[in-house]
Write a structure and sequence with these properties.
mainly alpha; 73% helix; globular
Length: 373
Amino acid sequence: MGLIVLKWSVGEAIFKCLAAKVATFLAFTDEGSSFVFGLLVYEYEIFAFKVLSVTLFFSFCIQILYYFGVMQWIVIKMGWFLQITIGTTACESVNAAANIFLGQTEAPFLIKPYLPKMTKSEIHAVMTGGFATIAGSVLAAYISFGVDAVSLLSASVMNAPAALAYSKLFYPEVEKSKTTTKDIKIEKGEEANWLHAAMTGVTNAIPMVANIAANLICFYAFIALCSHFLNWLCMLVGTEEEVCYIENIFGWVFMPLAWALGVPWEECHKVGELIGMKTVVNEFVAYDALAKMIQAGELSTRAELIATYALCGFSNVSAIGIMLGGLGTMAPERKHDMATIVVRAVIAGSCASFLTSCVAGKLFGHFLSSRGL
């Protein structure tokens, strides 16, 4: 996939076209949000009114596609392709394909009836896929931040097979799968018509938008609190002001990893900050910080590309609770198994994201030349 997007001119042109169409599609959100919020959208561009509105509109449209069976068809075909090319089981493949479009708790709903009888390795693959990818709704929000759409789209697609590969490295299969592609049947929704489906999509997105806003408020406040507390402790022992801010600590801790991914050493501290934010807080905060760095011209094109790929995934501390809560509700009898492998799965998900960022960094030269840089 990396070769297709970053090395093959035709594949890159396809993704460029797709990214442009997605950006145009998302821009229509402003028409609706400006009608409700007015100048807060176009003139002031306040985050809550401009960016979070994208999530509502995207969920609205996706639910309509589900009603007509379009999304189910795409997921089944992509799952079949992954199963044939990688050799994973039917449930693993369908879930991985769904993770490209859906979140870590929404995608497993497609295989919910089969979760109780899945092997531990299969459950590990399901969890790893959720940690290694991001939902289409928040992907749309990151694009609206100003992060490169082509990189985001390709990273989301590349992370699905990478997650399956790392999942099997971390937890190899030793049992026999009890499901096949023929066993999996994904039915359309129960809505009365497409309007009912659209309203369901909006209703389902409201808690997500509220959760994103609440988390951003609390985590940004908590980061500021920790930064000032650590800075105060450091100043007591004679260090300069702002040396011990938590962002700096993240940068120092994750500098070696950023360098290993291919980031120039002089920019490793900045990218290390982003990786730390993504791992300890969440990827939404990290992408927001990345967008600000891009706008301020603090990162080179290479560092920007690698960071965009490395941050693509739900693999963070808070996502562990979300994953256990979501999957545990679908298969209560497997909660013990899930709890024993979830930490391994989140590490595997992070490794999958880092692998795709390494691939992007390796193919960076062609990426630059194709853009005339």
